[in-house]
Specification:
heterodimer, A: 6-stranded mixed β-sheet, two-stranded antiparallel ribbon, globular, B: alpha/beta, Rossmann fold, 2 domains, about 10% strand, tRNA processing (chain B), cytoplasm (chain B), tRNA binding (chain B), sulfurtransferase activity (chain B)
Chain lengths: ~325, ~400
C-alpha cells in the first residue's frame, strides 16, 4: 500500500471514497472526526450548554454518531448534555435485536437511554400494521409514525436538539427520490442540515457530509458494536430504485454523492410554484401541511379497518373526513 | 364492513385484484372526435384516429412555441438536425407550418444545420450518411449548412467551415483521434462527454451568431430532457437545470436555445413520421455499456423505470419546470457560460469536500496535540473557491 497522504510516514490502509486520498488508520480517524467537527462548528449546529437527543437505532450510523459526538464533546468541550432516544416499532426479529445493541451503546458510552414504542404511542406494532395492510406501502406507516415518535420523545426529554444519523448517501438518495416523485416541498428541505419541525426542536444531521462507506470503515477500525441487518419489510420500497441508482453512480465516480448534495443545496423553487403551508393538525395539534396530519389519517384508517386511507390520493381522504363530519342537519351538499 | 354504506371497496380493489386491462374493442371510438375508429393508443389509454392524432400533434408543437411568445415574424432560427425520428419530425413540423395558408402559419426563417459527428463509422459510411442527410433536408426545401465536429475543433467557427452541400464537405479521416485529443485532459468517460457537450453547445451558439440567427431549435424529446435533468443533478449542475432542461436556454445574450419537442415522446413522433410516410436517416450505432458513464446510466435508468412507472418522465419534467435559477447569482462561468453563485455564507457540499481533501493531505505534525493540529488546519484552510468556473466546470478544468 502506498504511504499515507499526510506524509506521516505510516502505510495507508484505505482509500477514501470521498476524495481519493489514501490514509493510515490514525490519520483516517483524525480526518473523519475533524470533518464532523468542522461541519458542526462551521454550520453552527449546536449552542453550548444544550441538551441533545441522539436518535439511536443500533445501526452503524447512529452508533458512529453517538460515539463521535461523545468524543468531540469531550475533546473540543462543546458542553453538550447527550442522551440516546430509541424507537421500538415492534418488528420481531429486527427491532428487538437492534434494541439490545442500543442498550449496549447506552452502557458503553455512558449515556441515558429513552425508548418510545409504537404500541404505547399508537396502539399498533409494525407487525400488526403489516398484517393489516400487506407488504406494500409499509415504509409510509413506519416513517410517518417514527418521525412523530422521535418528536414526542424529544419533547418528553426536554432537549434542545435532535441529532439523527443521516449520512451523505441518505441525503443524495432522498434528493433523487424526491425528483422522481415530484415532491417539491421535500426537495427544498431535504438537503438542509438543520430542519425545524415547527414545534421548536430542530433536527440536525452532523453526518450529512459523511460517506456511508467511510462510516462503515470507521466503525470497523474503531471496533464499534452495531446491528447491521436490513429491515425485513424494506425490499418493496420505491426508495430502492433511487438507492440502486446511487450505488451504480458511485461505482462510476464516487464524487457523485457530494455533487448531488451540492445540486440539492443549490436548487431554488420557482416563486410561481404551489407550495404547501404549515399549520397545526386539528386532531393532535402537531405541525402539518394538511388539516389532519398524516399520522392521524393513517391511524384512523387502521382503526376503522380502512388501512389504505392514508395511501394514495389525499383528496379521497379529505372527502372521507368531510363525509364523516357532516351530521344529519348539516346544510352542505354531501348526502 | 358489515353495515350498509360501509362497502368502501374503492381502495381495496387495487390491492386485491390485478388492474383490469382495457380491451381494445372494435367499437371503441377516438377519444377526441368520438366518431372515427382509433388507430393509435398513446400513454396506454388515449385512443386517437388518424386525423385527430395528426392535428393534435401539430397543435401541440405550435402551442408550445406560441405559449412562450419568443419568436417574432422574420426572425432567423437555426434548426439543428440530428438523424432519427425527432429530427425528421421537427423538419416536417416546420415545413408544414410555414406552408400553411391560414393565419396560423409559422412566420420565421429557418436555416438547417447538420454537424457530422459519427467518427465510429468508416469514412465511406460517413460520406454516404452525409449524402442521405443532404437528400432529406433538400426534400423539405430548407437552406442548409453542413459541417463536421472535427472541422469545428480544428478550425473554429467561421464561414469556411460551413458548407452548403455534401460534396464539398471534406471529412477528416482521423476525426476520432482529433476528438480524442480534444478531450484528452479529462480522465473518465463522464467528464469527456460532459466537456464535449459543452463544446458542442458553444459551437452551436457561435454558428448561430455567424449566420445571424436569434434562436436555435434542438430536437430533444421528453426522455432526453428527463435524463439530462438527472445527469445535471448528479454532476453538481443542479443550479443550471432551468437552462439545460427548460424550454428556453437564455444564458447567451443574443442567441436563445429552444427545445420545441421537449413534451413529445418517441412513440408520438415515430407514429407521426410513419403516417406522413417519412423515413428518417439511420446509421449503425455502437451498443454502449450503460455503466460506462453517468450520462449512459441515467438514460438507461429513466427508460427502465418508465416501463413500470409510466409517469416517471412527465414527473421529472414537471419537477424541472418548477425549478428556477437562483436570484443572487453574479458571476458567469468561463466554460459553460451559466451564472453561478459566489461563495455562500452557509456551509455547502463544495466547501465540505474541499475541507476533506485539505484535511487528508495536511502534513502531520506529531509534536502537536490533535486539537492544536486542528486549529492549524483550520487557519490554513482557505475555502479556495475559484472565481471563474462554476462548481462542475471547476472539476473539469482541474
Amino acid at each position: 500500500m502506498p504511504p499515507c497522504s499526510t506524509k506521516c510516514g505510516k502505510n495507508a490502509i484505505l482509500k477514501r471514497p470521498k476524495t481519493g486520498d489514501v490514509l493510515c488508520k490514525e490519520c483516517f480517524f483524525e480526518a473523519f472526526e475533524n470533518e464532523i467537527h468542522f461541519t458542526i462548528t462551521r454550520a453552527k449546529l449546536f449552542k453550548p450548554n444544550s441538551k441533545v437527543a441522539i436518535a439511536a437505532s443500533g445501526g452503524k450510523d447512529s452508533t458512529v454518531l453517538a460515539y463521535v459526538l461523545k468524543l468531540l464533546n469531550q475533546k473540543y468541550d462543546y458542553k453538550l448534555d447527550l442522551t440516546l432516544l430509541s424507537i421500538d416499532e415492534g418488528i420481531t426479529g429486527y427491532r428487538d435485536d437492534s434494541l439490545e445493541t442500543v442498550k449496549q451503546n447506552r452502557d458503553d458510552y455512558e449515556m441515558p437511554l429513552k425508548i418510545m414504542s409504537y404500541k404505547d404511542l399508537y396502539g399498533w406494532t409494525m407487525d400488526e400494521i403489516v398484517a393489516e395492510i400487506g407488504r406494500k406501502n409499509n415504509c409510509t406507516f413506519c416513517g410517518v409514525f417514527r418521525r412523530q415518535a422521535l418528536d414526542r420523545g424529544a419533547v418528553l426529554l426536554k432537549v434542545d436538539y435532535l441529532a439523527t444519523g443521516h449520512n451523505a448517501d441518505d441525503i443524495a438518495e432522498t434528493v433523487l427520490m424526491n425528483i422522481l416523485r415530484g415532491d417539491l416541498a421535500r426537495l427544498s428541505r431535504c438537503s438542509a442540515i438543520i430542519t425545524d419541525s415547527g414545534d421548536g426542536i430542530p433536527r440536525v444531521k452532523p453526518l450529512k457530509y459523511t460517506y456511508e462507506k467511510e462510516i462503515v470503515m470507521y466503525a470497523y477500525f474503531r471496533k464499534l458494536v452495531y446491528f447491521s441487518t436490513e429491515c425485513v419489510f424494506a425490499p418493496n420500497a420505491y426508495r430502492g430504485h433511487a438507492r440502486v441508482l446511487l450505488k451504480d453512480l458511485e461505482k462510476i465516480d464516487p464524487s457523485v454523492i457530494m455533487n448531488i448534495i451540492q445540486s440539492g443545496e443549490s436548487l431554488k423553487i420557482n416563486e410561481s410554484a404551489n407550495m404547501p403551508t404549515l399549520r397545526k393538525c386539528t386532531r393532535c395539534g402537531y405541525v402539518s401541511s394538511q388539516e389532519v396530519c398524516k399520522a392521524c389519517v393513517l391511524l384512523e384508517g387502521l382503526n376503522k379497518g380502512l388501512p389504505k386511507l392514508g395511501i394514495g390520493k389525499s383528496s379521497k381522504v379529505k372527502k372521507f373526513i368531510q363525509e364523516k363530519n357532516c351530521k344529519t342537519d348539516c346544510l352542505c351538499n354531501n348526502k | 364492513m358489515c353495515n350498509v354504506g360501509d362497502d368502501n371497496f374503492d381502495d381495496l380493489e387495487n390491492s386485491k385484484y390485478m388492474p383490469a386491462k382495457e380491451k381494445i374493442s372494435p367499437f371503441s371510438k377516438c377519444n377526441k372526435c368520438r366518431e372515427a375508429t382509433p388507430i393509435v393508443v398513446l400513454r396506454s389509454k388515449d385512443k386517437y384516429c388518424k386525423e385527430c392524432f395528426l392535428s393534435g400533434t401539430v397543435h401541440k408543437f405550435k402551442a408550445l412555441l406560441g405559449k412562450h411568445k419568443l419568436i417574432r415574424p422574420n426572425d432567423r432560427v437555426l434548426v439543428v438536425h440530428r438523424c432519427g425520428h425527432a429530427g425528421t419530425a421537427l423538419l416536417h413540423f416546420i415545413r408544414t407550418g410555414l406552408d400553411l395558408g391560414t393565419h396560423k402559419k409559422l412566420r420565421f426563417e429557418p436555416v438547417v444545420l447538420f454537424v457530422e459527428d459519427h467518427s465510429h463509422l468508416s469514412l465511406k459510411e460517413r460520406q454516404e450518411l452525409l449524402k442521405r442527410v443532404e437528400h432529406e433536408i433538400n426534400y423539405f426545401k430548407f437552406t442548409m449548412h453542413l459541417t463536421s465536429l472535427s472541422h469545428l475543433i480544428r478550425k473554429g467557427v467561421n464561414s469556411e467551415v460551413l458548407k452548403n452541400c455534401a460534396e464539398i464537405l471534406d471529412l477528416d479521416d482521423d476525426s476520432k483521434s482529433i476528438i480524442d485529443n480534444f478531450v484528452t485532459k479529462q480522465t473518465n468517460t463522464t467528464n469527456k462527454t460532459d466537456f464535449l457537450n459543452i463544446a458542442r453547445h458553444k459551437f452551436m451558439v457561435d454558428i448561430a451568431k455567424e449566420l445571424n440567427c436569434k434562436f436555435i431549435f434542438t430536437p430533444e424529446i421528453s426522455s432526453d430532457v428527463a435524463s439530462q435533468l438527472l445527469t445535471d443533478v448528479s454532476l453538481g449542475r443542479g443550479s443550471h437545470i432551468a437552462l439545460n432542461t427548460g424550454f428556453c436556454d437564455f444564458r447567451d445574450d443574443t442567441v436563445k436555445i429552444l427545445r420545441p419537442l421537449r413534451l413529445f415522446d418517441m412513440k408520438e413522433l415515430g407514429f407521426y413520421n410513419h403516417l406522413n410516410s417519412l423515413n428518417p436517416v439511420t446509421y449503425r450505432i455502437v451498443i454502449d455499456n450503460p455503466y460506462k458513464s453517468i450520462q449512459h446510466l441515467m438514460r438507461k435508468f429513466v427508460n427502465d423505470l418508465q416501463v413500470n412507472y409510466p409517469a416517471t418522465v412527465t414527473t421529472i419534467l414537471k419537477t424541472g419546470d418548477k425549478l428556477a435559477l437562483g436570484s443572487n447569482k453574479i458571476r458567469t462561468c468561463d466554460l459553460c457560460n451559466a451564472p453561478f453563485e459566489e461563495e455562500s455564507a452557509d456551509l455547502n457540499s463544495a466547501e465540505s469536500t474541499q475541507f476533506s481533501h485539505w484535511v487528508s493531505t495536511q502534513a502531520h505534525n506529531s509534536s502537536l496535540t490533535s486539537q492544536e493540529r486542528y486549529i492549524q488546519t483550520i487557519e490554513a484552510f482557505n475555502n479556495l473557491t475559484c472565481d471563474t468556473y462554476c462548481f462542475r466546470c471547476r472539476q473539469l478544468m482541474k
